[in-house]
Amino acid sequence: MPEKPTEPIISVRNLHHSYKEGDGVKEVLHGINLDFYRGEIVIIMGPSGSGKSTLLKLIGAQLTLQDGEIRVGHSQLQGASPKKLMKIRRNLGFVFQSHHLLNSIKVVQNVQLPLAFDPSASARSSRERALEVLNTVGIADQAEKYPPHLSGGQRQRVAVARALIRNPRIVLADEPTASLDQKSGREIVEIIRKMAKELGVTVVLVTHDNRILDIADRIVHLVDGRIQDE
């Protein structure tokens, strides 16, 4: 891996987060400090309930920041307006365990969706861009099909293409291989490796899947809301 740049693309400082539990409050993250750099793949591991997905959602501005600081690019999440948070989210790519594709529209249209409200994108240019990223993930030949006609691995490739369509510098992936067999899961992580190394995308990936740890530049172990080791 090339030498790290001095400036992280994501910076997390003294991050705490709590949820209501019955009549009380349960703290799930206890003072997390982490940096993520351009073009690296960081895997976050830990048992269920360790706070992995909560951390990912906070970095992705999908949960309200309670206590601590998160900087994504040049944007501070704490105190950001809803409009600013929406803008930050639109510049990130998200890949989930469930691919969240719409079965009623074609593959290429699913990939185009993130550009639907982009005033600089026309129907033609967004389609061209969708076909380009479908080609990047090796599934352009399925563009005119509907998601139910694809295998699980193919649907997850479509989800990765959708995450890439806005040229994000950061992709956040939550258990992207959990519902896939070994071969399909391997294909997905090789695509993730490619986008990090060839496109310079920073990938933060939460997983329980020990089969994919070899793609990581760093592995962060989260236990009971604390970083156990890196």
Description:
The chain has 230 residues and is an alpha/beta fold. Helices cover 30% and strands 27% of the residues. The protein is built from six helices and ten strands. It has helices at residues 52-59, 82-90, 107-112, 123-136, 152-164, 182-199, and strands at residues 10-21, 24-36, 41-45, 67-72, 75-76, 92-96, 170-174, 202-206, 218-223, 226-229. It has a six-stranded mixed β-sheet. The chain has a four-stranded antiparallel β-sheet with strand order 2-1-4-5, with helices on one face. Helix 4 (123-136) packs across helix 5 and helix 5 (152-164) packs parallel to helix 6. The longest helix has 18 residues, at 182-199. The radius of gyration is 18 Å and the shape is globular. The model has no long low-confidence stretch (mean pLDDT 90).
Summed up:
With 230 residues, this protein is of the alpha/beta class.
Give a quick set of tags describing it.
230 residues; alpha/beta; 6-stranded mixed beta sheet; globular
Main structural class = alpha/beta
Q: Could you tell me how far the N terminus lies from the C terminus, measured between alpha carbons in angstroms?
A: 16 Å
Largest sheet: 6 strands, mixed
Round the Cα radius of gyration to an integer and report it. Answer: 18 Å
Count of runs of 4 or more consecutive helical residues: 6
Order of helices and strands: EEEHEEHEHHHEHEEE
Stretches with pLDDT under 50, minimum 5 residues: none
Q: What's the pLDDT, averaged over the residues?
A: 90
Secondary structure tally: strands: 10
- Helical content class: 25-40%
What is the topology, as strand order, of the major beta sheet? 6-7-8-3-9-10
User: How much strand content do the residues show?
Assistant: 25-35%
Globally, the shape reads globular
